[in-house]
Amino acid sequence: MATNENLPPNVIKQLAKELKNLDETPPEGIKVGINDDDFSTIFADIEGPAGTPYENGIFRMKLILSHDFPHSPPKGYFLTKIFHPNIATNGEICVNTLKKDWNPSLGLRHVLLVVRCLLIEPFPESALNEQAGKMLLENYEEYARHARLYTGIHALKPKPKFKTGAISESTTALNVDQTNKVVGDSAGIQLQPPLASRGVASGPEQAVAPPTEMAGPAATTAAGVSMVPKKDAGVAVGLLTAKNLVAEKKKMDARKKSLKRL
Questions:
Q1: Domain named UBC core: which ranges (predicted)?
Q2: Burial class of residue 118, CB neighbours in 10 A (0-12, 13-18, 19+)
Q3: Would you tell me which of 47, 144, 188, 225 could form a disulfide with 53, CB atoms 3.0–4.6 Å apart?
Q4: 40 closest CA partner among 61, 21, 15
């Protein structure tokens, strides 16, 4: 297994600096994996560029550095299956930057950007996948259909991106007690029936106290508010009316007796 021991100390130092920079400020659509114990193999995930048949897919690739890097170019391979003229069925990448146009001054960032640009603009004239190259030249729609099919089947799916300030999870947004009264949401607002619907004055001087233990069909709160069940309200009113009539009749009888004495 390759290790940093296969690379010269000065190269290891330069690679460590480059990889740190790629991690802190990654190129658009590219994420590099870092293994501090082995700089000779660089892994990267490349997002399929928008507007291409590779859109909505993530493709994993690797760069293999030889012991005489950077004097010789790295070898690039796609680990994710992809239908592309310049990428062989075994994943090997064919691009001039990694061959005749290689320059020791070129860094890893430049190489990775070139590979991603290859997904935007293939070069069918130097195809490693002859079927893809021929299809691209003769029937782009058919080529794009094949490439999208491979993307849908083999490419990794990007993780959803959430905007900051998003609504919190619904399971923690509201808490409901056993009386079906919402006691608090994510904003700390208590949702209760209006005071008027409970027969309680809503003025600032009126304090609402919890109901006392019911001693019969009706009870009163600590604030003196009558707590009569709705279903007994009609009966209570009828009883009060009957009592009033009896009292009035007794008063009338007493007055009549007084008049007779006179």
A1: 10-156
A2: buried
A3: 144
A4: 15
Phi, psi angles (nearest 5°) of residue 24? -80, -35
pLDDT per position as a tens digit, 57-86: 999 999 999 989 999 999 999 999 999 999
Write down the pLDDT at residue 97.
Answer: 93
Cα angle for residues 136, 154, 51 (degrees, 5° grid): 50
Tell me whether the omega of the peptide bond preceding residue 104 falls within 30 degrees of 0, making it cis.
Answer: no
> Which residue shows structure tokens 């007779």?
260
What is the C-alpha separation between 226 and 218, in angstroms, rounded?
7
Mean pLDDT of 233-261: 61
Q: What percentage of the chain has pLDDT greater than the value 90?
A: 52
Q: Partners of 259 in the beta sheet? A: none
Spot the catalytic one: 44, 65, 94, 112: 94
* 117 in active site: no
Using DSSP bridges, classify how beta strands 58-64 and 75-78 pair: parallel, antiparallel or unpaired. Answer: antiparallel
What whole-number distance in Å separates Cα of residue 182 and Cα of residue 175? 6
Amino acid at site 192:
Q
Give the model confidence (pLDDT) of 175-208 as tens digits. Answer: 434 444 433 444 443 434 444 444 444 444 444 4
